[in-house]
Amino acid sequence: MTSEWGGSAATVATRTAAMRLDSVTKTYGTGENAVTALRGISLDVPRGTFTAVMGPSGSGKSTFLHCVAGLDQPTTGHVHLGDTQLSGLKEAALTAIRRERIGYVFQAYNLMSALTVRQNVTLVARLADMAVDETWLREVLTRVGMHQHVDRRPNQLSGGQQQRVAIARALVTRPDALLADEPTGALDTRTSQEVLKLFRQIVDEIGQTVLMVTHDPVAASYADTVLFLADGQLAGHLNRPSPAQVAERMTRLGDW
Amino acid sequence: MFDIAWSTIKNRKGGFIAAFIAVICGSAVITACGVLLMSGLLSGVAPERYAGATVMVGGQQTKDVSQNFDPHFPERVTVPASTAEQVSRVDGVEKVVRDRTVAMDLHKDDGSARGEPVRLDHPLYGHGWSSTALGPFELTEGSRPGSARETVLDAGLAREAGLKVGDTARLSVGTTPHVYRVVGLVDAPANGLDRQSAAFFTDAQATALSPRPDRLTAIGVLGEDGTDAGDLAGRIEDAVTGTDITTYTGDGIGDLEFLDVGASRGFLVPLSASFGGTALGVVIFVVSSTLGLVIHQRRRELAMLRAIAATPRQIHQLIGSEVLLVGVTGAVLGAAPGFLAAGLLRDAFAHVGVLPDDFELAFNPLPAVAAVLLTVLGARLAGFIAAFRIARIQPVEALSESEAEQEELGSTRKTVGVGLLLLGLVASIVLPLVIPGQVAIAGAGGSLVVLMVGSALISPVLVQAATRMLTPLFKRSRVSGFLAGANSSANARRLSSAVVPLALGTAMALMQLSMLNTVEATAEEQATTGVVSDYVLTSDTTGLSTDLTSKVRALDGVETVTPVARSQVLLNYIEIDKPASNPFSAQGLDARDLDRTLDLDVREGSMDKLRGDTVALSWIAADTARVDVGETADINLGDGVHKKLKVVAVYGNGLGFGDVTLPHRMLTEHTANQQDTALLVSAGSGGASPQVEAGLEKLAEGTPGLAVQSPQEFTAVQQGQFAQQSWTNLIANALLMLYVLIAVVNTLVMATTGRSREFAMLRLIGTSKRQTRRMMFLESWVVIVTAVVVGVAIAIPPAVGCALALTGQPIPYVQPLAWIGIIAFVTLLGWLSISLPTRSALRTRPIEAVYAGE
């Protein structure tokens, strides 16, 4: 089930894949109540690219992202992060991978309300008992535009600012991949744009790999490649599309 | 980790303050138990009359019981007079004093034969003159007693009674009057004389007054100069034959002089140990339910932590650090009020008479240290339990679960909950049917905790059931009722954490009250219906002299006189699998024509055979010791003398009259005073007659302290140890209930305050303040109704079980007003704890509340 995307994967295979999925299926429950969320997905996400995953509700977007992040285990198939195979790893090892090699940005509630911006950003390093690279920390905070607010607490920040702090936290460990689950879902249009431009910037300027799940065609249009998911399968892709192209493709996939 | 924990605590003061308060109060409760325990182990009273002795030789006042608490003998263990001879031959002994102590009453000469009683602040004891060497008492006025009719008083007593040298003093022993001339006064010894008054007679007169001339109260030893008290005591113990004799030195002498102090310790140690255990359990329970709520309110944040980087261990570490900070601070702060609480408990125990009024607590830092350690450990355990679920689940589940409450309870939780409920039912009701006696009473009482934990586990289901029950009522209000119903069924878990402490408080209060009422009501009923005599003779002196019986029998028209003496005995038996020895109230009586004066409700055997080495037992005592008519009961009499007695009868009225009934002489011979408590007098078949009454009145006029009463007046029941035990339990539990009360308010306030954002949202979408308040009012009813129903439901089986174990009837005595009062109080408390925080939360402008953060 490699579909169209499987063919073009060869064209980018010259570059090392940051993530690779190999016939990944995911089924919840057993017997009659079984729900299949993913039906054999195989793909490579090249390093240093910005990929958006789109699909209507129930297409398996979130499950897909959870499997890539090691938050969830595929029923069959394999997920590789760089050279590391995630499937079969123990929870402790997965936690270590999440904290060291993956940056994760949620739709909301990304931050601990008790901690300052700086404390939130260095939280992962603290949990992993790693030293904080101060130069890099400063650069990351400057890049997301939060360097002047390091001592504020989340409730003193706007939604967009909170999301930028979350991105800083995801970047500060220099992860192999930054995964974002509807990162602009709770933001207004203007603030969304700021966040999406930030993603584009970190891909272009520091070569960060970003994989983003969204249902917003405008958000998807910032990506290098947009993958379409329908009914748990890949249903084509677009390179550097315009929002209109994305919207048009989505309409064909069904409601979103 | 501690700095994150600290920031979190600072940022979420509301939630943590609740846990903090729970820990402070918990630490206070445990400290109080610790202080009582330490006092039981250490506290003593300095000797007064024996203050000058090097070593005192006396009876062994405790019984050695392997693997169990050593009980104290209720009466003084006396020493054979011959022992003094053995002691005097020991190296280093300069002088041996044969001390005799006789309880007395002082009457003033008012011209009548009866005399006018003088109320003294302390008990008055008479001794031989040679005992003054032990104080030492110094003669300050007059001379030492030279004849049997002369006495020397301690100066304090003379002052209190208004007597001086040359006056006449009437000093009666029981109801036997003696008249003496005061020939001198002595000064109290260096330690003062604060717990007693003393009168001294010639040694010969003291021996004559003593009920057992062949026995001594104690033997005082004055050592030669430079003799070490400890060494001397060791040599004396080697020289003396007989195992029940022991030596006392230093402050330990106070234990020999004042038996009530030793008895208080025997009472405090097991009580505070068992109460401390319960308290620790309740503290863990309350703290974990409070922490559970704090953690519940920040599940989303913890789920996020799990998803981005934290291992389950780290979640535990984070929560553990928070708990440690809150726990240590709270526990340390709570220790100080704990000493205060111990003082209050002491006062209450002294008030019901289980501790002497001047019993002093031993204050040292050890209970506080132990309480801090236990509370912190308990809080850590509670935190671990509360964090267990959130830390264990997969991060994806955590993220999705945190959005809405999970519908179903885990099946393990349900199974364990139902299992505990069944276990509690069995322990409370089946146990008293199968093995009655004290084990059953303890089992029924303890089953409340099991039932509580069981219902706590399935409480969300109960809340949902209550919601369904109340839904028809809710439907009458279209907005508030709809919202309240939806909230209650969707957030059953959150609601149940408010229900649990409220139900616990209700159940504890109801059960303790019902147990106390059942005991008191049954004892009173037994006592009033049990005395079938026409008259009862009692005395306000130490007791009725035994020669009074024959005087009353000689009166015209008197047919039956039953002397009744009261004391306590130890009943020895195997409790489940280890030896136990417990005090039971006992009476000694003359069983001749007993049916004319006393109805003990004999169930088996016959009281007629109560003579010689026999005993009759109440069915509770018989079941506790597992002996039947014809079998042998193993008993230590009041002064420790060991007897194996054949059981001749089992009777029902044990609560009203005492659980052990012995032949009259056997009981009195082993009490210190050897006097009767009451004489039950019946006239001929015609019942009360003026002739008998006149005879008795005439006797009373010539006898100090004697009072003639009708059986109706004689309801001054000695309710046996169960009533006192119930009071003791009630006092101890009052402290626990206060704790639960604080926990209830705490939890409800916290749960309500945590919803201010939700209230704000409701207001923003157009719900009026009134509708929101009404919604919370209806929700509070779900909480209160569930709590009261659960509380009453789980209080009933233990109450029924206790009634079964105490009276044989499965009907607990219920004071409807008291039950209604408790339920009303719980309702009011629940309602206030929800409605006040709701009002205060609604005072903020909604738009600010929405953005105020989580």
From TrEMBL, chain B:
GO terms for cellular component: plasma membrane. Residues 20-238, 502-698 form the MacB-like periplasmic core domain. Residues 275-395, 732-844 form the ABC3 transporter permease C-terminal domain. Its main location: membrane. The chain crosses the membrane at residues 16-42, 275-296, 323-345, 365-388, 416-435, 441-466, 498-516, 730-754, 775-796, 816-836. It is found in: Cell membrane. Keywords: Cell membrane, Lipoprotein, Membrane, Transmembrane, Transmembrane helix. It is a multi-pass membrane protein. Belongs to the ABC-4 integral membrane protein family. This is Lipoprotein ABC transporter permease. It comes from Streptomyces reniochalinae.
